[in-house]
Amino acid sequence: MEPINIPSFANRINVPSELSEEDFNYHHQGCHDKIPNITDFEIISTIGSGSFGEVFIVKEKSTQSIYALKKILYNLSSDPELIKKRAKRERDAMIICSNKNSKRAPKLYYAFLDQDDTSFNLVMEYISGGDFNSYCYKRMCDNNPFQLEEIKFYMAELVVCIENFHNLGFLHRDVKPENLMIDKDGHLVLCDFGSSKQIVSSSPPSIGSGSSSGPNGFSGLAATINNNTPPNFTSFLRNPNCSYTSYIGTPQYMAVEVVQGIVYSKLCDYWSLGAILYELVAGQALFVESPDTTEQKIRENIGNWRGLLNTAISKSQQPISKVAESLIRDLIAPERKRIDSGAIKKHPFFEGVDWQKISDRIETPPYTPAPSNPTDKSSFSIGGQ
Ligand SMILES: Nc1ncnc2c1ncn2[C@@H]1O[C@H](COP(=O)(O)OP(=O)(O)OP(=O)(O)O)[C@@H](O)[C@H]1O
């Protein structure tokens, strides 16, 4: 293995405490032994942006391999410690998903600290079909609402994504359309693990380990935890083409117990499923009156969810079937009454769904992105086209 070049103290001064290269750097088994740096990659284009950084399509110069590189700039935040925690959580969860060969999360190839521009870098599998929010937005602009069979497919895929992540020992806590990617075959992949919470303690490998180290057999229903690491809520609100200054913070898909910061369990991710389901069938967002609705107002609305849900169902833009309403009410519900994946899969809304085929990714998706070349980003609205 080649030696890692440790930058001088002067360059290290902005690194948040207690996160060294040794804690963060990683390369997946089968990749170069050497931890790369940013100059090992050619930036081809920008595909997305988040609260504290950007995601690029990059080419590794030595292998010509195409990856997505997420650059998290910790100096952009007034709280670098929070960014450090998010970056480390994301890196750790991605390592476990990669080692377990999850097909429902992007594989992580490298993680490295870049001292020069004070960033954490995650080099991962490039998911070429764009994010689900952009796809929903395109469908809305084309006046082409989702048909019931399409909604069933995407919701069934989301159930499997969430279940898979839980089985690897994590709560996601920020399930939303922006964090769902469509892969080249048209299947859903869950991304952005910066808000995730590990339930079963496990030490993800650091430098050079590709061995399996994740927890097995998590039965998270009983494993409630305290909300001591609140998720970051920033996201685009519906229009993925809005400018950087239009970012608004929104907890709109967050479970009431997460928003209120009380004890919660893996069921919080199924509330988010309910909020997304409502949006697909109703053609409008739950708990958000307009793009001007503030984060504070959304939080209040979620706190008053009972009355607002009744109104949202009765005044929906598109009629909601009884069976869809029933599933929404089983998910947008107090935690003690909310159903989890076992009951969700048996719900009449999913009648006819072959769960084994969904799980094995052999159910034919309603839409296949068909990129024209490996770096085609036409499915991404932000920075694309
Ligand atoms: N592996 C990937 N392949 C392709 N595109 C990706 C990948 N990961 C992320 N993206 C794109 O980049 C966008 C931002 O990524 P991500 O949500 O991880 O950033 P973030 O800073 O954590 O965002 P947020 O502020 O919403 O928490 C995604 O919505 C998606 O469009």
Automatic annotation (TrEMBL):
Residues 351-385 form the AGC-kinase C-terminal domain. SUPFAM superfamilies: Protein kinase-like (PK-like) (SSF56112). It catalyses: L-seryl-[protein] + ATP = O-phospho-L-seryl-[protein] + ADP + H(+); L-threonyl-[protein] + ATP = O-phospho-L-threonyl-[protein] + ADP + H(+). Its EC number is 2.7.11.1. InterPro entries: AGC-kinase_C, Kinase-like_dom_sf, Prot_kinase_dom, Protein_kinase_ATP_BS, Ser/Thr_kinase_AS, Ser_Thr_kinase_AGC. Keywords: ATP-binding, Kinase, Nucleotide-binding, Phosphoprotein, Serine/threonine-protein kinase, Transferase. Residues 41-350 form the Protein kinase domain. Belongs to the protein kinase superfamily. This is non-specific serine/threonine protein kinase.
